[in-house]
Amino acid sequence: MKKFEISVLDLAPVKQNKTIHDTFNDSLDLARAVEKLDYKRFWLAEHHNMASIASSATSVLIGYIANGTQKIRVGSGGIMLPNHSSLVIAEQFGTLESLFPNRIDLGVGRAPGTDGLTAKALGRNPNNINQHFPQQIQELQRYFSVENSESLVRAIPGEGCDIPIYILGSSTDSAWLAAEMGLPYAFAGHFAPDMMETAFEIYRQNYEPSAEFPEPYIIACVNGIAAETDTEAQKLATTLYQAFVNLIRNDRKPYAKPVDDMDEIWNPMEKSHVQRMLRMSFIGGEETLVKDFKEFQNLFGVDEIMITSHIYEHDARVKSYEIIRNAVDRLNSSM
């Protein structure tokens, strides 16, 4: 088992009886807290038309978080590239990198981050996404290159910026693409764990080294909810469970407070579906997390675990990341 880094995926969660302004303040406070705890990076994810998630203008929010922190890397987990022109994203992230040198990551995915009707409003063409997504990544690489200075179309800011590109995915298609392009790979195990093991095998076995990334690099995104006791953590996790029940019911309302009994909310079919989707979740006190992270790392051997934490009370969410940091430090120091 090898040592691993830990990072944060923040969806800028909107909570019942809270404002979006509160959400952004909480995200910044969390970023400052995990920066002090030496988390490696803080990523934000692009979603649209969801009353529970406020990170739709992802590049703007990255700038807000980066401006309020000092050293932690800040980026996208991810930008849903087919929603945008490659040039606009190159300019946005070139601007961010120019403002916050050596701190900006660009994670890109091909999913819409929303429903079909909203995807259409974003201008996506579903007929050419699989072909166009790899092309867009190549366009980004070209816009960021110094050599593009001779082109008739240039990204300014952006040109000559050293902005690492990460390919995100929740299926094996993204694993093949990341391996072929010699780019780091982040898998969405926090909601789609079924293909994760196979995707990692494909990526490692077929990786083509690149100048920027001579070795494969894997980030596994998982759910993490920690508290002083397992019982307390399990109750905090009911906010996460309710959020996924709402997804199943196509009810995108803000996140709810924890409850004592989920069986009063979900039916047996919903419970089974939620448990399958959230299989890669680390929920418990510090001792439980040490054991669970060890088992996970023995199985997958990833370079980095990125943790998203759906907890209603902000202070409890910050505390959760503190406990996770302690658990990971204990595990890494034992290797």
Automatic annotation (TrEMBL):
GO terms, molecular function: oxidoreductase activity, acting on paired donors, with incorporation or reduction of molecular oxygen
Protein name per Swiss-Prot or TrEMBL: Luciferase-like monooxygenase
Record-linked CDD domains: Flavin_utilizing_monoxygenases (cd00347)
Gene3D superfamilies: Luciferase-like domain
Cellular component terms (Gene Ontology): cytosol
InterPro entries noted in UniProt: Bact_Lucif_Oxidored, CmoO-like, Luciferase-like_dom, Luciferase-like_sf
Domain Luciferase-like: start-end pairs: 20-299
Family, as annotated: To bacterial alkanal monooxygenase alpha and beta chains.
UniProt-listed PANTHER family: LUCIFERASE-LIKE MONOOXYGENASE
Domain of life, source organism: Bacteria
